Amino acid sequence: MSAKRISRRTILRGTGAALALPWLEQMSSAAPASAAGQLTSPPLRSVFMYMPNGVVPELWTPAGDGESYEITPHLKPLESIRGDFMLLENLWNAKTVGRNGHWPKVPAWLSGGYVERTSGDDLDAGGTSVDQLMAQKIGDGTALPSFELGLEATRSGIDTAGGGFARMYGSFISWRDPHTPVTKEIVPQLAFDRLFRSNKAPVISGLNPDDPRVLNSLQRDETSVLDLVREQAKALRNQGSSGDRVRLDEYFESVRSVETRLQASLKPQKRWINQGKLPIERPGPGIPNTRPEHMKLMMDILVLALWSDTTRVATMMTADAQTNEDFSFIPGVRGGMHSISHHAEEAARKKQYEMCVTWHVEQVAYFLKRLKSLDEGGSTLLDNSMVMFGCGIKCGNLHLEHDLPIALAGGGKGTLKPGRRLRFPKETPLCNLYLSMLQRMGIEETSFGDSTGTLPNLG
Amino acid sequence: MICRSVSLRLSVGAPFVAALLAAAPPAVTSDEFVKTIRPVLAQNCGTCHSPANPKNRINFLKAATARDIEADRGLWRDVATQLRNRTMPPVDSKLTEDERLNVSNWIDNRLRQTACSAGDFAGAVALRRLNRREYRNTIRDLFGIDFNVSEIFPTDGTGGAGFDTNGETLYVPPLLTERYLEAAQQILDRAIITPDLVRTFPAKPLTDGQEFSVMQSIYVDTDYDVRVSVSSTEGLGKLMLQVDDATGVPLSAQQGRGGRGGGGGGRGGGQPIYTVRIRLARGLRKVAVVAEGGPAAITSLAIQQKASAPAPEKMAQHYRLLGAEPGSDILRPRKAAEQVLRTFLHRAYRRPVETADITPFLTMYDRAAERGDPYEERMKLALKAVLVSPDFLFKMERRSEKPGIYPIGQFELANRLSYFLWSTMPDEELTTLAAQGRLQDAKVLSGQVDRMLDDPKSRTFTSTFIGQWLGTQDLGGRAAPMITELQAFYTPPVAADLRAEPILLFERILGENRSLLELLDADYTFMTDRLVKFYQLEDQFKDFHSDTPKLVQWPDNKRAGVVTSGAVMALTSHYRQTSPVLRGAWILDTILGTPVPPPPPNVPPLEPVTCKDNCVETAKTAVGMRNKILAHRVSPTCTACHNLMDPMGFALEHFDWTGRWRDKEFDGSAIDATGSLPSGEKFDGASELVKVLMEKKDDFARQVTSKVLGYALGRSLQDGDSCTIQHLADTLQKDNYRGRTLIREIVLSTPFRNSQGGKVTITTAAPPPPKLQKPMVVK
């Protein structure tokens, strides 16, 4: 026993010394004996990374028509990994066309649906978002079915001048169903702990999960608590009016999903276990002072989530729609990004807008390069991922809706052939990309949103 | 993006716009419907919505006279909203902007004037969970603990009238359920003191490589000393401690117990002791000692929690909640638990409880008791379940399925009242009145409103309401963020002072029962040293010294009320540039409640930015800017709305983009702050604009009434509420717009004290477009 090597699984489970976070730090660099039920090859991950306020069209899209292209100013930060992503052109979301420049284009980005204009009484994203559909279909294979991150707190109020949209719409790309946005985590420490809370399995090493000592342990208390309140909600539901039922059902489902997650963590899941350490430390409390720091932490946590196979589906909002955060941290930029984005073709202003957009691409590049640096037994984490990034409008100044700025990075576990530029027929549904990604994730859907088929020629 | 044009002169749509902006609502005659309104609708909507068309399900055109509208109020409310929101008619229609504005306003006015024809309306408040602020305050009142949930819970959504009290946008995602569990544990760990763990297990000698292990529940995340006694150090190698089979850490000989001799085992008075301090997390833990490199004659293993000395106020909190000192022997613990739960549930559920309410939580108590947890831990588990239960998290109200209006229960009313004015659970007085069945009595209710407004707890209402209504809560964050180039005069404390100005104004109006019109024309504000500097009033406030906001008269008539406040002026500006358009739109929407339609899609930006170099030619001078805006008046698409918005904004041009006064334009030219409305009012500068706004006090009264009502009810206002709003606004006017009258009358109103059963037709401010509609495509 004394000479026993500690496998990562043991450490993740054996959280007795839990406060000495992160547990990954404790991990022996020596290879563990292969744990029972471990996957023999890395799984495929899907990430959707949203950028706000559009791009400068001519600085994003290369000139000409060919598969090869000269790197454009916006894409410059990706130059060293240009073989790892492809530009997808002429995609759009038809149902957002001609509508408010920002609000409906956020929920529709991943749902492809018609976003209802409402002041909040009945939000409708027009459909379930593609990431959440993935989570619902394959999410039970990981501790977290999906992982939603962002940098900005949910927006409040109604944009009356913008046509009566609840500004909340601008804060959510993930929708569990057309009416229920999925709250994203914006505090690094909470996001980090969430990865491990889901791993705080009530498994007590050496004991069978069905052992009464385990069933009656402190670790199982929350399951009992949730069980109890779920029953209460059920009883209340039968007394309430139909309006109440909707909310109580949501509560019920919410409780049940946390309960299911706790239950699932009892059973060993077939997961992929990467060797080695990932030097990502538990962040301090609160939101970092500067946006670059904040962004880097969230990106790191996302890398950790994927690397540790805690989730295989994630969304990240590098900013919310119409973000007007002060971007003066970029040398040469003054003021909030949204007001800068409406540059009215005024050169100095447009230059600042360009810098803001390129800064976002740099953040994506940082993330992709980290994925590429991580070996998963012969292939990299990036090889085993599909990272879609871009925006729901082409041009921040005019809110153009054609040919959205969309790119897809990663090798898709051998199903994608990156390093190219693919031009589809004009007005090809963005949902065709989602259908292609769904099928690669092993989800047998024949359509999604307003898709008319899959995207040809990706692989 | 705001990109519209403006005209300072009357143009095509003048007659109706003039009518719209007249001080009194225009008399909407049914004649006008037949002559003007219906023909426009018939022409632009008739193709699809003709009454003769069998496929048409949206049959508003069947109304032949204005009177017919009342039979279908909900549908007509939709028509106005769709027009205003541009969801209808499709973009290829020939409807002019003048017509769009005219018709939608006519319908709104007609519906308003006939609001009470539909009879009483109470509506049904959607089931609402506590929002973050309410949760925090409720925990404070339940436990005496200030627990900052904003660090743990995600931001609440807002909707309906635009407040975070709106039940329809208070979702319960799984993430929040996780956080509820976590918050409950943290709160109870602070409220209840679990006695320090001290436990000794007898052990048997180990051979080399053998382990001795115990299972122990750890209650508190903290440091623990693990001590192992050995009878002899003979042949002893290393002693390793393993928790849950994770990597071992070595135990070492206890200091100060001898310690001579190579083996290192402490010798002294008793047996040698080996010890290590480790941090343990809550949960059942396997704690094991392993002998490495030789046998170990261990005799006992002790786990001792690092001693803690709880502060006296923590002890008092504990005692208040459980009625016993931590660790004290309780004669009949289960009976005691039941009693504690009964008292606690009554408060946490904010209603009387029955035994059936208590039983489920006693099963939690039993679960912990059966595994031998101390009394304190058993109570923690039971109370944790309470804090996650729907009856605690939601503002429960019993419903009737029978159609019709019925008064809500006494405790439900106490809850509505308390969460409205205090954002927290009812206090003892409210609870007592509810128990006595006296809360539905109008006199009692009025008395309670006064008492509650006098209580400092009502500040949470004033600050939340004003911050969310005016949008000033975002100042210094999302709106007018801190940027380095302004740091000389614009800092976080200054932003806080600017946010506080309108709040303190509202607080004074409610506190002294003054006129709500002072929100528009107060000639005073709340000054600090920092604001003196920000407003550049050092000369006028030479002898003024105050770190906290202090009531002062403005030294001149440059500013009055909230419209001219630094906060509002900053949040309605672009970066380094004022925006007459944004400012005008803000007044129409926020202050008068008469928002204009959004710009048509993809209109190019109108306002060029102000800058020193590289500017488009016209933007280099202030006159150029203004002319550029004015030039667009030739476009009929823009005039209808910009004629309303921009003149008001021009009147505020003396306030720069940070909210400070300026005498000159950025290019050194004189400020032109003149404007005139299509209805004929002319003004120069803010103080004259304020006078014009004061003439529109009916619009303002209706707006402030709807906003407070929406905040209070926590739901979207519906067509049926227009009667209530009109009635409230009339009462307000008769009582000189006194602040308390509004609050009191809202509390006494039908929708606040009642609920409505059966099918309540819900017509909201923003209905979904008809299903047949295809997305509009601009080619």
What fold name goes in the CATH topology slot of the largest domain in chain A?
Alkaline Phosphatase, subunit A
Q: What spatial order of strands do you see in the largest sheet of chain B? A: 2-10-4-8-7
How many distinct helices of chain B? Answer: 28
- Tell me about the largest β-sheet of chain B: 5 strands, antiparallel
The count of DSSP E runs of length 2 or more, i.e. the number of strands of chain B, is 19
Number of strands of chain A: 11
Radius of gyration of chain B: 34 Å
What is the CATH first-level class name of the largest domain in chain A?
A: Alpha Beta
Low-confidence stretches of chain A: 1-36, 198-203
End-to-end distance of chain A: 49 Å
User: Most extensive chain contact?
Assistant: A-B, 119 and 132 residues
Rg of chain A, Cα atoms, Å? 23 Å
Mean pLDDT of chain A: 84
Global geometry of chain A: globular
Count of domain modules of chain A:
2
Structural class of chain B: alpha+beta
The helix/strand class of chain A is alpha/beta
Question: What is the typical, i.e. mean, pLDDT of chain B?
Answer: 85
Total of DSSP H or I helical runs spanning 4+ residues of chain A: 12
Measured by DSSP, the beta-strand proportion of chain A falls in 5-15%
Quaternary status of these chains? Answer: heterodimer
Please describe the structure with a list of short key phrases separated by commas or semicolons.
heterodimer, A: 459 residues, alpha/beta, Alkaline Phosphatase, subunit A, 2 domains, seven-stranded mixed beta sheet, two-stranded antiparallel ribbon, globular, disordered N terminus, B: 779 residues, alpha+beta, Jelly Rolls, five-stranded antiparallel beta sheet, four-stranded antiparallel beta sheet, 19 strands, elongated, disordered C terminus
